[in-house]
Amino acid sequence: MTEQLRERKEADIRNRLAIALDVDDLVEASRIAREVRPWFGVAKVGLVLYAAAGPDAVVELVESGYRVMLDLKLYDIPSHVRRAAQVMGGLGASYLTLHASGGVSMLHGGVEGLAEGAAMAGLEPPAALAVTVLTSDAGAPSHVLGNRVRAAVEGGCQGIVCAASDVREARQLAPRIVTVVPGIRLPGTSTDDQARASAPQSALDAGADLLVVGRAVTSAPDRAQAAAEVVGPLTLERRRSGRDGAGL
User: Among 27, 49, 118, 196, which has the minimal tally of Cβ within 10 Å of its Cβ?
Assistant: First the structure.
């Protein structure tokens, strides 16, 4: 294998792993991001870090080489979501989350706003990800997932966020949609508040495209070792299937 091909394969793997930087300090977030950079190509900026640092968090992580998943779960009237997404579209993030429960019109507004904001900044638009059912929600009625996946497709979203246990059903409804799975935990570790957590291999076996890993790595005594344990099955899966994470 040539050096160039090896580097490309490693980049493919990293781009299927997102590190969730759910801390309230940008200096700490940046330190974690540097520490786990050999294993992760995507950094998730959620409500906590965005509340603490705002757009600077996105800019700094993009400049450090990460693709950024801006996980704000926008949910409001369609015009407000469109305007907020327009602002977000110019920040340089690769993904933005919207709540699928907001409905087709709201999702469509977010998708259009993202494209408009990115175009004004001379950037490619981020992928809009519709959050279906939270991984902390173990009691959602069975019909909810299907309704929200259909709303995501009709609203023009490029991907969805769902639990690993929901991926197969979601793919039956939307075979080409990108699936992002949070709540990844290593076997034998605490699931914390994630009622529907999943081991990395289980999520991959279900067909997940992008795994979001947080406390399993960020709270580990040895983050490098924990990151390597997460990446292990992904490397094997990549070798077996040649799968690059379509759409990512």
Answer: 27
pLDDT in tens, 164-212: 989 999 999 999 999 999 988 776 555 555 556 678 888 888 899 999 9
Residue 114 lies in a domain: yes
Query: What is the model's pLDDT at position 246?
Result: 47
Asked if residue 158 is part of any domain, the answer here is yes
Least Cα distance to 49 among 27, 22, 10, 69 occurs for 22
How many domains does one find in the chain?
A: 1
Asked whether the beta carbons of 214 and 185 are under 8 A apart, the reply is no
Among residues 80, 197, 178, the alpha carbon closest in space to that of 137 is found at 197
Give the domain range for residue 205.
Answer: 73-241
In angstroms, the CA 186 to CA 156 distance is 33
44 is a catalytic site residue:
no
**Active-site annotation holder among 67, 73, 148, 215:** 73
- Residue 6 placed within a domain: no
Query: With contact defined as beta carbons under 8 Å apart, do 10 and 40 qualify?
Result: no
Question: β-strand 95-99 against 178-181: which pairing, if any?
Answer: unpaired
- The tens digit of pLDDT for each residue in 112-162 reads 999 999 999 999 989 999 999 876 655 656 688 999 999 999 999 999 999
Residue labelled with tokens 């992008």? 210
Residue 111 lies in a domain: yes
Here the CATH number for the domain that contains residue 133 is 3.20.20.70
Report the Cα 35 to chain-centroid distance in Å.
Answer: 19
Q: Which helix (H) or strand (E) holds 127?
A: strand 127-131
